[in-house]
Model the fold of this input.
Amino acid sequence: MTQLLEIDNLGKRFVGFVALDNISLAVTAGERVGLIGPNGSGKSTLVNCICGTLRNDTGSVRFDGHVLDGSTAHQRTRRGLARTFQLPRPFTSLSLLDNMRVPLIYTVAARGTHRSRHDIEARCTELLREVGLEAKAQRLPRDLTQVEMRKLELARAMAAEPKLLIADESMAGLTHSEIEEIIALLVRLNERGVTIILIEHIMRAVMSFSQRLVVLVSGRKIADGRPDAVMRDPEVERAYLG
Amino acid sequence: MRSDLFLLVCLIVGGAVFAAAAALGNEYYFFAGYVVLQYVVLSTAWNILGGYCGYVNFGSAAFFALGAYSTVALHRLYPLPIPLLLFVGGVVSGVVGLGMGYLTLRLRGAFFAIATLALAVVLETLIVNWDYVGGSRGAYIVRPEAIAPFGNYIKYLFLIMMLLAIGAITVARVIERSRLGYGFATIRDDEMAAEASGVPTLRLKLIATTMSGALMGMAGAPFPYYIGYLQPSSAFGLDYAINSIAMPLIGGTTSWVGPLIGAILLGSLQQLATVTISSAVNLLIVGLLLVGFVIVAPNGIIGLVHKYLQRKPDDFVGRRRVGTDAPERAAGPAP
Done:
């Protein structure tokens, strides 16, 4: 099995605070990985370092055979790394359809896939349909509910046609049925060959989705393995579940 | 409408305006019209960076003055034809725009605005102390009385500014509908999300500052021939900086129509006030209108029209960016 993502001794500190302490992690192509940890354990910082939003101080990130260190966020997106933001960050002045359009014309087109304007619009609509927002294609993000906003966030990441999708707390505040819906969507995506890292607080969702579980506590990786085994780990129980 | 068709319509309208001004038989209309058209170019140029990308530039006067002083500097060497001066002014201001962008685009909101204002002060100081272009004494440019086949020289200048205005509007409209336009809009909305969607934000912002600066420089290039006597305080005048911001804001920043409407409205009003009341009233008018619009219609005239049209649900006109709150957020601190 080839490693899609290899993180080697990644470190990040904010002035005196060590946010990430020598994290090493490898993700195989096609895997579904859950990343959990208490608030402030460094999950989002890790995502930001992987995606280029933040620069890591030490260590390196390899993705799909390329060393990513020093490359910008948009270059990483074009390589096939897509993410959602913990708090949805839609393009507020663009319609939902145009929100989908941006990754298509900037990321997918940059990989050499040429589409006509008509095809792009068809693809945008298709993406919105997949998350159930087709009816609101011409509306602005401000007309959406929180739940719909999270779906929009996910759809926009999917629009970039990534090899690896990092979903940062896509399910916070959602009801049971909505969580099932998003999980089903992510599983469908995974079946099409997209590797997925799911960061989530909702244990039920993480346990049902993940093939492997990684636990971060205070910027350190304390466990990595099969979900049931990880959950029985005494250190995880002590640090994470209290 | 296709862009070439749009350009044709603009040229016809421009031709009609020129013919109307000529038919009135009073040269004053060309003098006044020139200033209005100059503001069309300036506000359209400002809007490329300020309206589309959300970066408020307070240094428009500096780019305008650079264009004007490029002309003065070249004129001292050899009197070149104006279209060539336009090109040179555009290149000089474009390069300075690129440089300014590179140095300041890591700043957002009010900090970016202050940096552009500082640029204007630095450049003015340079010009004041540069004797070759007249320094603080100013520089005289004696323009020819007439030029074939236009007759009076002011008609020729008017025509050039008209063409430049049409060019600027067409460029702005093309940007709006292109890949670049979507990229600019994402920068205005959320740069972090834009990067995550694959938008090369730094490169796009540099394109915007360069284009915006170049157009402003081109607007300034014929100015010494128009005014006859150029001094730093007039070329770097506060009016240019304020008007270039006020006109798009009053017209609406989300589309090329906004700066056009704002410039024609405010520019004509100022010309009218200059001859009927006094030239000092100009900035007062701008200030009062700006305050009024911020209270009543924060999205400008375009925003008002969209709001009115949206009351009828079948009449959905907004292709995108309907009634956004971009100008308010652009001036605010970074999210």
User: Anything to note?
Assistant: The domain at 3-331 of chain B is CATH 1.10.3470 (ABC transporter involved in vitamin B12 uptake, BtuC). The first strand of chain B starts at residue 139 and ends at 140.
